[in-house]
Predict the 3D structure of the following.
Amino acid sequence: MSKAFSAIGEERDVERDEFTPGVEPQPTWCPGCGDFGVLKALKGAMAELGKDPEEILLCTGIGCSGKLNSYFDSYGFHTIHGRSLPVARASKLANHDLEVVAAGGDGDGYGIGGNHFMHTARENHDLTYIVFNNEIFGLTKGQTSPTSPKGHKSKTQPHGVAKDPLRPLSMSLSAGASYIARTAAVNPNQAQEILVEAMEHDGFAHVDFLTQCPTWNKDAKQYVPYVDVQESDDYDFDVSDRREASEMMYETEDALHEGTVLTGRYYKQEGRNSYQQEKQARGDMPEEPLAGAYFDDDKEWERSYEFIDRHK
Amino acid sequence: MTDDELIWRVAGGSGDGIDSTSQNFAKALMRSGLDVFTHRHYPSRIRGGHTYVEIRAKDGNVTSRGDGYNFLLALGDSFARNPTDDAVYGDEEVKPLTENLDDLREGGIIVYDEGLLDEDDVEGLDERAEENGWHVYPLDLRGIAKEHGREVMRNTAGVGATAALTDMDLDHIEDLMSDAMGGEVLEQNLEVLHDAYDQVNEMEFSHDLRVPEGEHDEEQVLVSGSHGIAYAAIDAGCRFIAGYPMTPWTDVYTIMTSLLPDMGGISEQVEDEIAAAALAVGASHAGVKAMSGSSGGGFALMSEPLGLAEMTETPLVLLEAMRAGPSTGMPTKPEQADLEHILYTSQGDSHRVAFGPSDPKECYEQTRTAFEIAWEYQIPSIVVYDQKLSGEYRNVDASFFDREPNPTLGSTLTEDELAEAPHDDTGKFHRFQQETDNGVSPRSIPGQKGGRYLASGNEHWPNGHIAEDPDNRQMQVDRRIQKLESIRTDLDERDQQVVYGDEDADFGLVVWGSQQGTVEEAVNRLNANGNSVKALGVSDLSPFPVEEVSAFVDSVDEALVVEMSATKQFRGLIQKEAGTFGGKLSSLLKYNGNPFEPAEIVEAVEIEQNGGDEQPTAQTTLEPAAGD
């Protein structure tokens, strides 16, 4: 069966350049865009993990973030606005040997795709979900997003947005994600470390990735001090403790718009089954990747004739 | 309309076991050698309300529910449980009798549960019975049930009484009861059955309706349209289904879910229909035969993933079980008015393949076709049916389902084939070649060596990357459209349209989907009465069988298009696709929530043939032809 997907699990040293498309057009992101940082960290993390480009499926949504898999060489699925997660999780259920990563922006992931985000976190699919959070709609030219600070003015909110920004980390925790971190494009070393952890984590890993938008969001985060909560003595908490993690997230989300940006790991739940493991334990999902069955010449396919007896 | 048939209507409240009782009774009639057809009518509520199931049984092919019925088993108690004193229920408690009498044929039988219904409550029953020659048998079904077991077993008492009144053997009924239950419950039910049978047998009968005799050449099965679709999907190798419950699509969804995990497949209930269809796209992209589906409102949400599947050329099968709309419409009533919705939803020059089967056998055949076409041509296929066909049971030769499974992934490459396939200078696979023989560009699956590409919902280069280059755009669009021409050729060989009736007739009927069987019966009846008509049942909705349909309409002087829609959607489709026939096609429409009955079609054809401009007396509308 392995012949069907021989790119999966091949052990060799993988160079980060292997994830760079050869003669592809240069990224269409603006100079200084935080999205370059995500791309760099992702390539580094995949190389560190030794993943073959052909065993990776990178599913993206729409917007600047959605173009990530145009500049990252692997199998890719550039889906539709907000829908990267349902596509990604079905791909993982269909072939759980694939390394599946989903990515989208704050509008894509927390706005239009918010329902899918909540339910994918709840189900704890073994996926890594990167949300490019630049607090703005970029590709549609600078409208207010779900994470824009209260009072933020844009052409669609000319009097300043009257809503409080969404709290992605707290939302993720209450929805049921089992790994939650925040990192930033201006901090590529930490970003790579966190992405490696997220991909190694056996469950739904949500990475809120702060990216600056030099074109539409002049309050871009590169100008403020970044503090790594794991490196600072001021923030000692247990990432496996739900209550402490929750308090830290709340503080972080409050501080974000007050000039201090805290990044790092906020929550890691050990020992919880991923959705796939839960389904398998219930006999609800095969142990072998389902996609492999179609390439298995020895498989005996059941026929409806076996079920028709009950209708006689 | 003769009484060489039994049309048994069992009426009561939702939740009273009407459905299960009737299914067993239908099976017993089938086992006795008769052809059966069931029709289910139910309200959108969990318990109470007026519901009935009709079973038509006769010796010989039954293709519709028929006109009216000749045996009513009125089980009382159709009001909601635990009614409070000040709740307003109107006359619902006597509905099993009052609601059903209009359709009861002259000389028909009424059995009602006098344990629950007092005849005095039923206004004018005596007079109406006398006028119509009905034979009324009040029986204390509840009392019999209580005596041997529990009150809920009054259904069984009703079946026992029916058997006695129609001179039917209890053997098959007993067998089916033994299959369904055991222990004390079975014993009690058998006692109830026999007691009711014996009590009624001692009575003097005033009617002469008897259950017909028949024989089958081979073993039969009783299946619904939903079973036909689900079994076809399984035989086509579908092992992944994602969905969100919605009436009436839920039937297929639950049948599949009850079977898939034990077969190594996966069923997912997800947050909404956008997710459901997107999951099916994701699973299909990753190499599994997958499907999803919904009914009108849920299918509306699937418009996005449908377009994504087309643009990324991901094989996909979606089901659309139509009900009356717009919006929530009437959840438990059939209509054929989602036709344009399924054909034209999604932005841009989008395309999909669509099939409209007419009975459980066609549900099976065409769902298999839908999978074969979707995986071969990498395009979404939709099977569109309706609430009627979804829950309507018919007997089918058991051997019909004895087919080989077909789990092949169509135009999907193996790694060996991938090594030979075109790649660009960077080693990236040309997944979306611009020019191919039949429009199909073979695909790879994530994890395969040498097959990496980007599947994008944006327009893309052959390697999948986003492109706005005009030449590439045009070639990719042309290639995707070219697939439809290839599919049309493929479907022509399968010849899924059906013509029946008098070959030389000058008057034609055109129909699609669940109304086909009713039209067939009307055609047979018209021709038996000295008329000359023929009919065409269209199954392929997209790409449309223009040549076949045009040849049929050309061969008649005028044609009546029969559909359950107020806006002549199917007639519009024929005219749009054929580019003509404006002056030749008139319409018979019904959109009150109930499917056509054969007599309504007979009546309409007679009006049309006599050149009259009157409207039918029934709840249908005749719309004249427009200018060419």
About this structure: The radius of gyration of chain B is 27 Å. The mean pLDDT of chain B is 93. Chain B has 21 helices and 22 strands.
